[in-house]
């Protein structure tokens, strides 16, 4: 009897060793891809890096050691080459977003960001692409340009009115991007915010995404998805026990507060005042917001019907995607230009914006117009270099293919997760000499064609950032106005300390500074 039990135990052990160690290392189709064994055997090795907030930097270090393809988990491979970039993220590549993105569903509804399938995504994108095109963003007759120019005026007025703002730009830049994206999505009447003009309720909308425990919630949501869902769906006594034991990574309500709740409120307000019966005769012309465009489409009877929750989900996601990204980039740009070592770049930028003729500035406020700020080569180089070194979404962008495919000489079976990151692409020393040095002028050299191919802050192909032109217009118009009027320098307390932002669950900062200070945890 004993010997049967021992035999069974040994057989189970051998089976487990085969499945958990031998197979991933020696028989898996990915076994030839280089990388440390611990990462190839278990997904928890990478999850641990994630927990420590060093996932992206660890993957980067693995690329430096193992080359352009690294196995980072039993079923996940990271790449860092232009050929892989084209195969995975090129237009029409057929690669889909993975389940990872489903944590950005809002109200249980998918949106542009979270659709995996190419067709579903393309259908939704068709509805939005024109509104986000460069010509629409810079058109005087559409919503974005006047809105951004007004917000730039408000920002400069705020600098004059509340002197402390100029010493702590992080928050006020968030108010700027909040007012810009909400005005664009909802229009002034139905949810456009006035944080810059002092509305405390609107400023408070940001607390939710600034809550540091959101970082932990993101980690749980990715690595312990079923358990997290279980935790948050307990009711009654169990709910109290779970809370008492401190098992919740973030206190309830963890999700539909702040920006997400605001989207639903904006939608409800819009529907009540606009309503189907007077929809075609009222506000449409004066209020061409994204919400209104989607509503108009949903009433047209063409294609799949969008209901209120679909519209609110789409809008909430664009808000979340458009706030931290833009304001974090602006914050890094101003901070890096304020360092004494970069004084020369600030002076050259000031020279460029000083040369803008008065006729190219708005009568109200006297700040450069958005379409003029868009055409300043030095400013453009500064923003590119900021996005290269401090990309606000620097982490890997996971994708998978429905069919087997070869990438950089390796056969990648269908369903394998493949990814690349701006962080690693932007630090390739063969493409960007002295990669950790802030040098905007590298973008002004005639031979920067290769660098442009590696620049990936906004991703590429069909899933490239839809808000690119909106973000660029916000950033160029505000920076041109600030440096036309002011010089900036670092505060005493900031000396030797890099600002640090968190993206998903990692902290990013300037690696050349001795220390960093985390400014905010973000949910995106
Ligand atoms: C500096 C500013 C910004 C940067 C660097 C940035 C970067 C990115 C990146 C890298 C992606 C792809 C993410 C992935 O696939 O994992 C993305 C997608 C997206 N971004 Fe942005 N973004 C910025 C601003 C904005 C703004 C202002 C909006 C406003 C609407 C926005 C809306 C979106 C949306 C909706 C997607 C999903 C697009 C799709 O799947 O088709 N972004 N962004």
Automatic annotation (TrEMBL):
InterPro entries: Cyt_P450, Cyt_P450_CS, Cyt_P450_E_grp-IV, Cyt_P450_sf, Cytochrome_P450_monoxygenase. The keyword Cytoplasm does not apply. It comes from the Eukaryota. It holds the Pfam family p450. SUPFAM superfamilies: Cytochrome P450. Its cofactor is heme. Heme binds at residue 465. Belongs to the cytochrome P450 family. This is Benzoate 4-monooxygenase cytochrome P450. It comes from Talaromyces atroroseus. The lineage of its organism: Eukaryota, Fungi, Dikarya, Ascomycota, Pezizomycotina.
């Amino acid at each position: 009897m004993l010997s049967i039990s021992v035999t069974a135990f040994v057989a189970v052990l051998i089976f487990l060793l085969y499945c958990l160690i031998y197979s991933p290392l020696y028989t898996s189709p990915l076994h030839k891809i280089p990388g440390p064994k611990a990462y190839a055997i278990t997904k928890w090795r990478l999850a641990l890096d994630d927990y420590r907030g060093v996932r992206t930097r660890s993957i980067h270090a693995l690329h430096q050691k193992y080359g352009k393809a690294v196995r980072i988990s039993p079923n996940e491979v990271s790449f860092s080459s232009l050929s892989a970039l084209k195969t995975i993220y090129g237009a029409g590549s057929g690669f889909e977003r993975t389940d990872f993105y489903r944590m950005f569903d809002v109200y249980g509804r998918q949106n542009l960001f979270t659709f995996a399938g190419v067709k579903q995504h393309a259908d939704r994108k068709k509805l939005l692409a024109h509104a986000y095109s460069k010509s629409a963003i810079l058109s005087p007759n559409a919503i974005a340009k006047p809105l951004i120019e007004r917000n730039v005026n408000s920002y400069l007025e705020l600098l004059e009115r509340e002197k402390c703002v100029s010493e702590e730009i992080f928050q006020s830049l968030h108010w700027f991007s909040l007012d810009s994206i909400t005005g664009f999505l909802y229009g002034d009447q139905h949810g456009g915010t006035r944080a810059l003009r002092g509305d405390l309720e609107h400023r408070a909308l940001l607390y939710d995404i600034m809550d540091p425990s959101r970082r932990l919630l993101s980690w749980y949501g990715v690595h312990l998805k079923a358990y997290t869902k279980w935790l948050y769906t307990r009711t009654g006594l169990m709910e109290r026990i779970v809370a008492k034991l401190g098992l919740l990574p973030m206190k309830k309500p963890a999700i539909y507060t702040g920006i997400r709740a605001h989207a639903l409120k904006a939608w409800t307000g819009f529907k009540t005042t606009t309503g189907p019966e007077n929809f075609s005769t009222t506000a449409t012309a004066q209020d061409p917001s994204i919400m209104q465009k989607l509503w108009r489409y949903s009433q047209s009877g063409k294609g799949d019907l969008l209901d209120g929750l679909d519209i609110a989900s789409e809008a909430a996601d664009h808000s979340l995607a458009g706030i931290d990204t833009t304001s974090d980039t602006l914050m890094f740009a101003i901070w890096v230009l304020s360092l004494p070592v970069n004084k020369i770049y600030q002076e050259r930028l000031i020279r460029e914006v000083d040369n803008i003729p008065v006729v190219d500035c708005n009568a109200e406020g006297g700040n450069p117009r958005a379409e003029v700020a868009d055409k300043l080569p030095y400013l453009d180089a500064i923003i590119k270099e900021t996005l290269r070194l401090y990309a606000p979404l620097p982490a890997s962008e996971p994708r998978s293919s429905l069919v087997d495919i070869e990438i950089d000489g390796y056969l990648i079976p269908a369903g394998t997760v493949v990814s690349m990151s701006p962080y690693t692409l932007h630090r390739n020393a063969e493409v960007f000499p002295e990669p950790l040095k802030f040098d905007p002028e590298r973008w002004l050299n005639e031979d920067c064609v290769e660098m442009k191919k590696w620049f990936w802050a906004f991703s590429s192909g069909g899933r490239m950032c839809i808000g690119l032109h909106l973000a660029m217009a916000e950033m160029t118009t505000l920076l041109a106005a600030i440096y036309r009027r002011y010089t900036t320098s670092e505060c005493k307390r900031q000396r030797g300390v890099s600002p640090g932002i968190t993206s998903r669950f990692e902290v990013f900062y300037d690696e050349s500074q001795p220390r960093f200070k985390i400014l905010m945890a973000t949910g995106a």
